Amino acid sequence: MQVASAVDGEAVTQLVREATRIPSVTPNEEEFARWACRRMAESDAFDSAELFECEPGRPNVCGTAGGGAGRSLLLAGHLDTVAVEDWSQHWAGTDREDPFGAHVIDGELWGRGVADQKAGICAIIEAVRAFGRAGLRPAGRVSTLFVCDEESGQPGSGVSAGIRASVEGRAGPRPDADFAIYTEPTTSAIYTAQMGFLIADICYTGVSAYFGRPELGVDALRAGHRLLDRLWEHSDRLRESVPAHELLGEAFLLVTSVTSGGNIAVPGRFELSLIRKILPGESLDDAATSIQSIAAKVAGEHGVECTVDFSAPRDHRFGGTPDEVAADQPGVAALARSIEAVTGEPARIEGAPYWSEKPFLRDLAIPGVYFAPGDISNCHTPFERLAVDELVTATRTLAHFIAQWCGAHDP
Ligand SMILES: [Zn+2]
Predict the structure, then answer these.
(1) Which of 105, 106, 86, 84 is closest to 96 using CA atoms?
(2) Spatial CB neighbours of 30, under 8 Å, sequence gap ≥ 6
(3) In terms of domains, do 389 and 252 share one?
(4) Ligand 1 centre from 409 Cα, in Å?
């Protein structure tokens, strides 16, 4: 408990406020990366802190602390945040107007990225600094890895360029550890499971024609209408045929946008996007094939051309794979004990209602979980915020866990 007690609640709160005030909307992570690197470099608790570019102007940050006979640990997070247009519109003329203001209102920090995931990165930095404050060092190697390019949404970015470069050894040392914590917000629960996903963009091309001579056209919107019906039927069948996961719920697909028509003419083009939730045990290849064959069959029935593009490749060419570690995995069990020791409450083991980058680490045989303060359900919205009390408690928990997992010794 010595290291956990050495966490400075005021210092970690200030760290998150500073971090939030440095915008890092994908793909502009560099200034924040430099800041995070500096904060580690200036602390005696860290042995190294370095930037490694995965693309020009887009660095990852790697740090190390301690080492020896103890178990090793990787603490990872992403540097980027989603954009802020929604925020500025929603809060115009109020005290929350500035998305990078990081004001504390009623015990909560408000701002873009406070929870997703500047809190996670700052909790990591402070948890390691706590070893220095306690006059101790981790007895196993602690590595920190902060990557760029996790968040989707900005055209041309958000495809995991940062972590991909890292696991391929193109940006800093290839990650290697006995256990990993990736600090996506989890409301301080342990997320052992996560969904996989794929995004499909389907385009039908028919033939536009003057409205009064529809027999000269091929109606892509009519084909699209049939496609929508077939896709929703497919989703209903998935809910029935794929057994629900106890932490993640049901598999399904959601049509997220449709565009067609506009002129007083036979619509010659129909575009649709969908996201498919994929459970552990399901195959991305099979999910993609099902969608392709539904799209092709309807296209054939209606005489339209069809293309299907899987536009969000992550750790798989069609999307991101699902992932799960057992609740009795030693790292999970140790983190649960740290939560209980620090909070006096039993740890909650839950499933992530999102996809993030932990599967890249799994592929290097590094088992891991998500754990951090903050609630994903208000992230990516104008209501993103973080309770200061939760931040401090989660940072103490992380410090406690590092000391338990790696061990701590007097240097
Ligand atoms: Zn995130």
Answers:
(1) 105
(2) 57, 58, 59
(3) no
(4) 33
Q: Which of 230, 186, 206 is nearest to 377 (CA)?
A: 186
Distance 347 CA to ligand 1 centre (A): 22
Same domain? 348 vs 206: no
Predicted confidence at residue 284, as pLDDT, reads 98
| Domain assignment of residue 237, given as a range | 196-310
Measure 9 CA to ligand 1 centroid, in angstroms: 23
Cα Rg of the chain (Å, integer): 23
Q: Are residues 206 and 327 in the same domain?
A: no
User: What distance in angstroms lies between residue 79's CA and the mean position of ligand 1's atoms?
Assistant: 9
Residue 157 has pLDDT above 90, yes or no: no
Q: Is residue 153 predicted with pLDDT exceeding 70?
A: no
What separation in Å is there between the alpha carbon of 386 and the centre of ligand 1? 14
> How far away, in angstroms, is 238 Cα from ligand 1 center?
27
Model pLDDT, residue 411: 84
Other CB atoms within 10 Å distance of the CB of residue 236: 12
299 plus 360 within the same structural domain: no
Residues 304, 184 share a domain: no
- Reported as a single tens digit per residue, the pLDDT across 335-376 is 999 999 999 999 999 999 999 999 999 999 999 999 999 999
CATH code, domain with 361: 3.40.630.10
Give 110 Cα–ligand 1 centroid separation in angstroms: 16
Q: Does the structure show a pLDDT above 70 at 334?
A: yes
Contact 318, 198 (CB under 8 A): yes
Beta carbons of 141 and 72 less than 8 angstroms apart: yes
**CA 78–ligand 1 middle distance (angstroms):** 7
CA of 343 to the centre of ligand 1 (A): 24
Of 310, 345, 372, the last residue of a domain is 310
Protein residues with C-beta less than 5 angstroms from the ion ligand 1: 116-117, 184
DSSP 8-state assignment for residue 113: T
CA 108 / ligand 1 centre spacing (Å): 19
Residue 1 pLDDT: 80
Distance between Cα 125 and ligand 1 center (Å): 17
**Cα 357 to averaged position of ligand 1 atoms, centre (Å):** 9
Query: pLDDT tens digit string along 294-304?
Result: 999 999 999 99
Sign of CA dihedral 23, 130, 68, 333: negative
| Whether pLDDT at 155 is above 80 | no
pLDDT digits 0-9 by tens, 251-287: 999 999 999 999 999 999 999 999 999 999 999 999 9
Question: Which amino acid is residue 335, in one-letter code?
Answer: L
